[in-house]
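May I ask you for just one protein sequence along with its backbone structure tokens in two labelled lines?

_____
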Amino acid sequence: MNIPQDLKYTKDHEWVRIEGDTATIGITDFAQGELGDIVYVEVETVDETLDREEVFGTVEAVKTVSDLYLPLSGEIIEFNESLEDEPEKVNSDPYGEGWMIKIKFSDESQLEDLLNPDSYKEILGS
């Protein structure tokens, strides 16, 4: 299982890449594997400001629909629109082409609550 060392993680199986005051967010390799073939990603919260743990969208797989939870409070500034035509990128490249949103986060102290790769591995039991 792929768990890049340069990212932060959540207990909800999302990854976070911090660049300045912007965070890129997607779901982890573990999450996409559990969901199976992803057929649709819906994010209708662009330009909205949401609190941490609020639902920012959904991901639909063949067998299930799962909510996506915001790991940091902030304004959603971008959605990966390529997922509208190719949602399978989340399966094939969850940490690259399969990213979901970018946010401008508003509370830097929340970064301390994100998991490092080793802590995330512990949650997975690996």
